[in-house]
Structure to design on (219 residues):
């Protein structure tokens, strides 16, 4: 039976751990966004060695589980003299893993920019940096914003994996409460509701944004 009184008592404790979940998601996503853009640009470079290595790294990370990568960062890195806190290790794992997916999203957006736009940069005597920042990226990023937003939500829902490296986010907090009270129904239910309450409205906002951008760019 679901004990509402017990659920009310433990709700503030679980809610306090939500800050860790949200912080890990935001910081990890910022890392994934920046690193994903860098990977997308490196994969398109004319230097074949760099492009080959970059594409190899992307494929390797995408085809290995996030959980394994988290374990490696948190438990194996110390063997090489690099000990990270659970939060830093979790953010690093999320950021690196999802950067490989965002790199493909960025690459598709960049490929969608008409070839003539690159010629415009040459005609204006822009440097390569100016061409990227003033012509290519302003056209490549807006149409892919909805896809990027969906990955943000997905990353948020993946944060329970961080409990595997002892980070006390909301799921880990629910496990601790369940172990202390021998009642897991209430804390796990609360965690599920919190994820739904935060994820569903965000998905609706992204859908609205996608509809607006589709009309603007006639996608």
């Amino acid at each position: 039976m679901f004990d509402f009184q017990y659920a009310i008592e433990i709700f503030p404790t679980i809610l306090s751990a939500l800050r860790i979940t949200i912080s890990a998601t935001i910081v990890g996503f910022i890392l994934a966004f920046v690193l994903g853009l860098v990977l997308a640009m490196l994969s398109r470079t004319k230097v074949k060695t760099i492009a080959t290595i970059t594409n190899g790294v992307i494929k390797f990370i995408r085809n290995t589980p996030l959980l394994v990568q988290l374990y490696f960062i948190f438990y194996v890195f110390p063997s090489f003299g690099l000990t990270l806190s659970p939060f830093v290790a979790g953010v690093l794992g999320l950021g690196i893993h999802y950067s490989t997916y965002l790199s493909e999203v960025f690459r598709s957006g960049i490929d969608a920019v008409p070839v003539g736009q690159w010629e415009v940069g040459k005609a204006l005597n822009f440097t390569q940096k100016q061409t990227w920042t003033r012509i290519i990226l302003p056209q490549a990023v807006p149409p892919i914003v909805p896809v990027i937003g969906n990955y943000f939500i997905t990353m948020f829902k993946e944060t329970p994996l961080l409990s595997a490296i002892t980070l006390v986010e909301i799921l880990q907090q629910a496990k601790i409460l369940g172990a202390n009270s021998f009642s897991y129904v209430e804390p796990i239910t609360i965690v599920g509701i919190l994820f739904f309450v935060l994820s569903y409205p965000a998905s609706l906002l992204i859908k609205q944004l996608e509809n607006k951008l589709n009309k603007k760019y006639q996608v």
